[in-house]
C-alpha cells in the first residue's frame, strides 16, 4: 500500500523532481508490534535532510500520524517514507517548487 500526500495511490507525477533528478530524501523504519520503531529519530532525520536540501516541508505532526496509522495493523514490517521536492518545471532550477510530496509505503519484514 502507498500513501501519497495522505491518499492511497500508486501514481506519482512524471514531472516530480524525485523522478527527474532524485530530488528528495527518505527513511526506512522497522514496524514491530504495530509501532514504528525509533519514530522520533526517523522524523528528526527527515527534518534535518529537508532543511539541508531546502525542501519546504513542515507538517511533521501529520507525517508522524500517518506513519503511526500505517504501522498499526502490522505485527512486523518495514515502513518507507520519502519526501520529494514536488513537481517542477523543466531544468535544474528548483524555483517555484513549493509543494513537497510525501510518500509512505509498508512492506513485509524480510525473512
UniProtKB/TrEMBL annotation:
Pfam families: Aminotran_4. It is an enzyme of class 4 (lyase). Coiled coil: none annotated. This is Aminodeoxychorismate lyase. One of its GO terms (molecular function) is 4-amino-4-deoxychorismate lyase activity. InterPro entries: Aminotrans_IV (IPR001544), Aminotransferase-like (IPR036038), BCAT-like_N (IPR043131). Its EC number is 4.1.3.38. Keywords: Lyase. SUPFAM superfamilies: D-aminoacid aminotransferase-like PLP-dependent enzymes.
